[in-house]
User: What shape does this take?
Amino acid sequence: MTNPKSKISILYVDDEVHNLSAFKASFRRDHDVHLANSANEAFTLLETISPQIIIADQRMPEVTGVEFFERLHAKNPDPIRILLTAYTSSQTVIEAVNKGQIDKYLVKPWNNDLMQSTLQTGFSMYEARVALRVKNEELRRTNSELNRFVYSVSHDLRAPLMSMLGLINLAKLEKEIDSQVQLFELMEKSVIKMDNYIQTTLDYYRNFKSEISIEAVQVEVLINDIIDSLKSYHPKCKINFIHTGAKELYSDRMRLKICLSNIISNAVKYGRKNSDPYEINIQTNLTEEVYSVDVEDFGIGISEAELPKIYDMFYRSPKNKDSKSTGLGLYLVKEAIHRIKGQVTVDSVLGKGTRFKLTIPNQKK
Amino acid sequence: MKKLRHLKAYIVDDDEVELYVIQRIIYLKRLAEKVEVYRSGNELIEALQRTIEPPDYILINYRMSGENGLEILEKIQDLNLNKPESPPFFILTSSTADLSDLDAIMSDKNIDGFLYKPLIAKKLKEQLKSLFS
Assistant: This one.
């Protein structure tokens, strides 16, 4: 019996016209049937259609069914291939099946019920095959992302270490106490840079590994904590923060913090144009439904060409001389906000400033 | 023939800490008398165009934002600065550099030496000695 929901797209290739019309007569109501009189005609047709099942007669002039499937397999391995033969030349069939170009084999003249059930199982095979290919592609992508990640992390962790080593080499030569103090300050910066990098890497890991856990988060307190932790490193930045509306947002605290702290620290870092004091604005509003966050700076901005790339893993602006950037911050924001069903948008003008907007649903049940 | 401690050096790196470390090492080990630091290829080129007393050697970091060390060197040669002879050019590279970067540096005939970072005073001294004595 056929499932009316899944009309299978089938291509039948045979040099005998009455076979073609008999097939169409029997299956056109249940399925989407395409016909071809020769292998060449089939290939022409395949440029415009993508059937899930392809049936071919073995005995055709010029090209045999097995040869046709061999060529097809090289071009498109997805469709299920069914071979039809009138005579049982078992050697041909065994070879073809062993080579892997044939998925099913039927004897001519076919029995309609058997054909129907073969089409159904063929279709299930097709779906499994496609799902497997999609999964494989996904795995391959994750694997290369992982390789890149390992390379970048080790490379980027080594940079501040090498910088430390240089400072230590110098410290051994330095006799004056004042110069030594300066060296310790520079070493401290390298250590903070490394720690910052490791923290971000941990966030990356946590975001992927841990389950979402919804709890009541005091958003105003959370942002004030983030601001406090940034203040001491950026004494010239004045952070204006206004919160309106409700106090408790139901969301995942860890991911919420990843989003907010990255967006705010970016504004603090890139809001600076020169050594003058500068300001950034944070406005947040919380309702029963949604928490909206608006973070605005008046700093270096992002060029139009770079905007589409800012969320990419390990993307660093070539203009950004601040080697503190891990290239992970906004990537993490995008991944984390996706996990808490929120959205992030950005507006930026090069040299004028940048404005990030986050909208995060209040998941109070 | 010049004594090392009377030389004039230019250092180019986009990292402040590196600049500081290299500058101090050269000063403390007396590998130059005067040291000037620049943060990009453009700053270096401007300085070379302006100066009436060109440096005796240039130390330049390979990997910087913008142009790399070799590209900057090429630019300097195209500009025909410091005729009749351009100053010796040392490339500094991280020990974690890509192999392709190292290949590019090793096969460049225009450079007079290359050194790994972090800079070790003894290595720089050896190379300078073979050039200046």
Q: What stands out?
A: The interface with chain A takes residues 14-15, 17-18, 20-21, 24-25, 28-29, 65-66, 94-96, 117-121 of chain B (CB under 8 Å). Residues 15 and 39 of chain B are 7 Å apart (CA to CA). The longest strand of chain B covers residues 89-94.
